């Protein structure tokens, strides 16, 4: 597991193997979460990449009689 060092400006470098595995590129935005005592960085996906992610999902629901 790669390790990083926090610089005096509180910056870290994401190791190349991790960047390659996640497809992170220079200038990409990451969401930062603090969760149960650790830091999580999640790539923010552009909305265009999310188009169609629910395609084929069937979520049946009952409509109220006056909404038919």
Write structural notes for this entry.
By secondary structure, the protein is of the alpha+beta class. The chain has a domain at 17-54. Helices cover 16% and strands 18% of the residues. The protein is built from two helices and two strands. β1 and β2 (38-43) form a beta hairpin. The longest helix has 7 residues, at 16-22. It starts with 15 loop residues before the first helix and ends in an 18-residue tail after the last helix.
Features:
about 70 residues; two-stranded antiparallel ribbon; 2 strands; single chain; alpha+beta
Would you spell out the secondary-structure blueprint of this structure?
Layout: H1 16-22, E1 30-35, E2 38-43, H2 47-50
Antiparallel strand pairs: 1-2
Query: What ranges have pLDDT less than 50 throughout 5 or more consecutive residues?
Result: none
Structural class by sheet pairing and helices: alpha+beta
Looking at the structure, what is the overall shape?
elongated
Helix-strand pattern, N to C? HEEH
What is the β-strand count? 2
Strand order of the largest sheet: 1-2
What average pLDDT do the residues reach?
A: 88
Q: Roughly what fraction of the amino acids lie in strands?
A: 15-25%
Report a brief summary of the structure.
The chain is of the alpha+beta class and 68 residues long. It has helices at 16-22, 47-50, and strands at residues 30-35, 38-43.
């Amino acid at each position: 597991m790669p390790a990083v060092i926090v610089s005096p400006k509180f910056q870290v470098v994401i190791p190349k193997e991790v960047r390659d595995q996640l497809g992170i590129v220079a200038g990409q935005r990451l969401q930062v979460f603090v969760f149960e005592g650790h830091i999580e960085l999640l790539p923010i996906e552009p909305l265009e990449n999310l188009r169609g992610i629910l395609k084929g999902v069937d979520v049946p629901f009952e409509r109220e009689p006056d909404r038919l």
